[in-house]
Amino acid sequence: MKTLYEKNQLTFALVWIVVYCVLQSLANPLNKAIGVEYAASAGFCILQALALFAFIRKNGLLKRYGLCKSPVPARRFLCYLPLVVLASGNLWNGAALHYAPAETVCRIVCMLCVGFLEEVIFRGLLFVAIARDNVKSAVIISSVTFGIGHIINLFNGSGMDLVSNLCQIVFAIAVGFLLVTIFYRGGSLIPCILAHSAINTLGTFANDASLPTETRLLHLGILIVIAVAYTLILTRTLPEAEAGHSHAPASGGGHPAGAHSEGIHRRADGGGAA
After folding, report:
1. What pLDDT score does 274 carry?
2. What pLDDT score does 156 carry?
3. Which residues, 6+ apart, have CB-to-CB distance to 82 below 8 Å?
4. Residues 119/205, Cβ–Cβ less than 8 Å
5. pTM (2 d.p.)
6. How confident is the model over 108-130, as a mean pLDDT?
7. Are 150 and 168 in contact (CB under 8 A)?
């Protein structure tokens, strides 16, 4: 991995995205074979998360990829309260236990790992690799790629229909822009990872099955407005000079090395978030 990383960071990021998508697609039939939904998914996520974190830590890249405390005070981010609101979206219609204990545990473990993996891969590896040449392109590409990547849920056996998937994609893109803004302006992925993991995990307990389609779309619209508004506020109140210092373009060709989200699924159907 180190050789590929040193040779081309963008290729390294794309490889991790492909591996992540392939493993999660392969997990679906394995889940059915095991008899516990998300059992294989959780296992693959744990292994990939450990491998990625070990690589980043071993090569002294924790700060580069935001696995550190932000130097920008939380008050500059409105104490991240809008993220709390977004995370609570899954519980706006109450909470419920939908699954057997074993499946519930597997879903929670999987969603926690997905929050870490998707943030580090899309907001970390992919964004930083592209930002070395053009920050604006990095913001757009990493956010849109993150959102469109959820189209895989149409083909991986998850059972998601086209309309729900399109809603999922739109919401994921909006949240993608928000989280990459937080990372770029604050230099830390930790708030993004915590928010993403919370949104996904709480989707396991969303009580939205009885909500009419109109109500679900209204909830989705409100969350998208919150995400967009928060993004615009941060963009206008946090100067670029104060953030993104760890993502400054590096010289040369490389930098030497030193579900699918449950929450988005829920929000696409009317409950949940990123």
Report:
1. 47
2. 56
3. 226, 227, 229, 230
4. no
5. 0.84
6. 95
7. yes
Distance CA 256, CA 59 (A): 9
CA angle (179, 241, 239) in 5-degree steps: 60
Of the listed ranges 99-103, 161-165, 180-184, the one predicted with least confidence: 161-165
Three-state secondary structure readout of the chain: CHHHHHHCHHHHHHHHHHHHHHHHHHHHHHHHHHCCCCHHHHHHHHHHHHHHHHHHHHCCCCCCCCCCCCCCCHHHHHHHHHHHHHHHHHHCCCECCCCCHHHHHHHHHHHHHHHHHHHHHHHHHHHHHHHCCCHHHHHHHHHHHHHHHHHHHHCCCCCCCHHHHHHHHHHHHHHHHHHHHHHHHHCCCHHHHHHHHHHHHHHHHECCCCCCHHHHHHHHHHHHHHHHHHHHHHHHHCCHHHCCHHHCCCCCCCCCCCCCCHHHHHHHHCCCCC
Burial of 154 (0-12, 13-18, 19+ CB in 10 A): middle
Within 13 Å and on the Cβ side, how many CA atoms surround 181?
23
By CB neighbour count within 10 A (0-12 exposed, 13-18 middle, 19+ buried), where does 208 fall? buried
Question: CA–CA separation, 38 vs 17, rounded Å?
Answer: 19
At residue 245, the pLDDT reads 46
Give the pLDDT score at 158: 55
Mean pLDDT lowest among 15-19, 204-208, 222-226? 204-208
Residue 266 above 70 pLDDT?
no
